Amino acid sequence: MMEAKLVLEDGTVIHGKGFGSETTKFGELIFCTSMTGYVESLTDPSYKGHILMMTYPLIGNYGVNPEWYQSDGIKAEGLVIRELCQQPSHYACESNLSKFLEDYGIPGICEVDTRALTIKIRKIGSLKGAISTEDISDKELLSMVREYPDITEIDLVDEVSTKKPKFFGEGNRTLVILDCGVKRNIIRSFVERKTQVILLPYHAAPTEILEYDPDAVLVSNGPGDPRRVKNVIYTIKKLSNKLPIFGICLGHQLISLAFGAKIFKMKFGHRGSNHPVKDIESGEVYITSQNHGFAVDISSSDLPIEITQINLNDGTIEGIKHKELPILSVQYHPEAGPGPYDTRWLFDKFIKIMDEY
Ligand SMILES: NC(=O)CC[C@H](N)C(=O)O
After folding, report:
1. Topology (CATH level 3) of domain 156-356
2. Which ranges in the chain are annotated with CATH 3.40.50.880?
3. Going by CATH, does the domain composed of 2-148 fall within 3.30.70.890?
């Protein structure tokens, strides 16, 4: 295996073994506590701009199958792990993790003490970093990392959204999804429920959306700072009294912004498959799949939206709804991929709202 290093903006330099592509990539280093689901996570467009570190110590065991992809390829900038399994075993395995990363030009580094690094990030927060398997000195790489723009300064949604309309499934109801970096499982969740899905570029104008005569609009998940995606916030405001609107993750943040809430960057985010979320009305607790670094802040009860669900680990907002209009959203991922299926009922709820409207 080739030599590789991980350099962080605070000056940390970690040497390890490289796998995947021989290259240098930059991004915000974040950690994910899911024990499995590395294929789904690497291909989740919300990870664009991030270097993904898995806390589970052995990764790659069951290999790779394109059916598990959440988009057309790897969207994360790099992968940091403790131990790489080089001989995967699984009935559906078609490739291995190293080849998978190589196919998409993405570097990986293993033999890293990921747990110590996670403790560091939990203490000081997410950090910008680079993985490199090239011949660049530590000093030079560190200054490149420090010069690299912060995640809040990059328009990542534009890099992952579809360039033209796409159509999926059939049925007697139609849903427009504004593609900010949608995961395939979200589209699948509606197609399975006999819904025609029209996927539009995130910048589609309100008039263009209405021309499709949809029964509702869903604002998808996606990477980066929601405050940068101003045109979608405008679209949500324009459509709010015309159609039901649902939001997942970035979509939840954009709907919240459209109705006056604020956004803050979390210290190290929520990324994993076991985040407990409580539904305030029913008192039920769900185990949810999460991947976000920003969160919604609703400090005033004068806003037209109210909190429906909260995170039981840190009390952050996990769900909101409009006080009068059929508009609701969640911060977590009801479609799973990877993660538990506890909250798949939300898709049935969305569909019921569409059908009744
Ligand atoms: N999965 C997502 O949609 C992420 C939303 C947003 N980019 C965040 O990091 O908070």
Report:
1. Rossmann fold (3.40.50)
2. 156-356
3. no
DSSP type of residue 150: P
ipTM summary value: 0.98
229: CA distance to ligand 1 center in Å? 12
Would you say the CB of residue 216 lies under 6 angstroms from ligand 1? Answer: no
| 216-272 residue pLDDT tens | 999 999 999 999 999 999 999 999 999 999 999 999 999 999 999 999 999 999 999
pTM (global) more than 0.95: yes
Count CB-CB contacts under 10 A for residue 83: 16
Ligand 1 center to residue 74 CA distance, Å?
Answer: 16
Give catalytic status of residue 249 as yes or no: yes
Query: What residue ranges of the chain are covered by domains with CATH 3.50.30.20?
Result: 2-148
Mean pLDDT, the chain, rounded, equals 97
CA atoms in the 13 A half-sphere facing the CB of 75: 25
Angle at 48 between CA 218 and CA 42, to 5 degrees: 95
Is residue 114 within 8 Å of 81, Cβ to Cβ? yes
